[in-house]
Write a structure and sequence with these properties.
By secondary structure, the chain is an all-alpha fold. It has helices at about 5-20, 30-40, 50-65, 70-75, 80-85, 90-115, 120-130, 135-145, 155-175, 180-200, 210-225. About 75% of the residues lie in helices and about 0% in strands.
Length: about 230
């Protein structure tokens, strides 16, 4: 066979391999060929910015703001730091996005649904019941209070607190209290909430589930008598 004919034969063999039908289903050759195709068309999914924000929120609730750092979060998510920098230029950018997510969730998952309750007294009761069971949110809020002197944190805590107090004040006014009394009751309710959240971080008060539910019921009846 002459050397000149080899390239043409090689090209024909390659063309036949590309157009040949798959081996019989179930054969080793069939399995290997299909696995190769799947590998090519199903690359590993890249983490989203939301994945990093959720991981940051969990870390914030567990260990405080200082623990929200790139390398520990990457280990938590099982990825390299390159994944982080695909979405955020700096740690501060991640913290900003994370606390804004928490603020948005607080408004969308608690205040907005409760605002639809027509009876203002029942609206207040439902708000307390809803808030009392948001344990991760409590831990995050306590962690933010500890870092309130940080430039990103102070304005957030002030903004969230003012929105919550305004919401409760308006409900008390709609329930028939005069403006001054409504404002005072809202401050009292919020002070009790903040104090309880802070005490919970040192394991106080120690209560069973039943005791906690009794506490919430008593708090509601004291603040919003029928």
């Amino acid at each position: 066979m002459s050397m000149e004919r080899l390239p043409a034969q090689v090209n024909r063999a390659a063309q036949q391999a590309r157009t040949a039908p798959l081996p019989p289903r179930g054969s080793l050759r069939h399995t290997a060929k299909m696995a190769t195709k799947i590998t090519k068309i199903e690359p590993k999914a890249r983490l989203s910015a939301a994945d990093w924000e959720r991981a940051a929120l969990e870390t914030l609730s567990e260990n405080g703001l200082a623990a929200v750092a790139v390398e520990p979060l990457a280990r938590r998510l099982g990825v390299t730091k390159g994944s982080f920098y695909w979405h955020f230029p700096t740690r501060e950018a991640l913290i900003q996005a994370t606390i804004e997510r928490w603020e948005h969730d607080d408004e969308e998952q608690v205040l907005a649904p409760t605002a639809t309750v027509a009876d203002p007294r029942e609206r207040l009761r439902e708000l307390i019941r809803q808030v009392s069971h948001k344990r991760q949110s409590h831990a995050i809020f306590a962690a933010l209070f500890k870092a309130i002197d940080q430039p990103l944190i102070g304005p957030l805590v002030e903004r969230v607190s003012q929105r919550r107090i305004d919401f409760v004040t308006e409900a008390f006014r709609q329930a028939g209290f005069d403006a001054n009394t409504a404002a005072n009751r809202a401050r009292l309710a919020y002070s009790a909430y903040v104090g309880f959240v802070q005490l919970a971080q040192i394991g106080q008060p120690r209560m069973t589930h039943e005791e906690f539910e009794d506490y919430i019921r008593d708090f509601i009846e004291t603040l919003i008598p029928r």
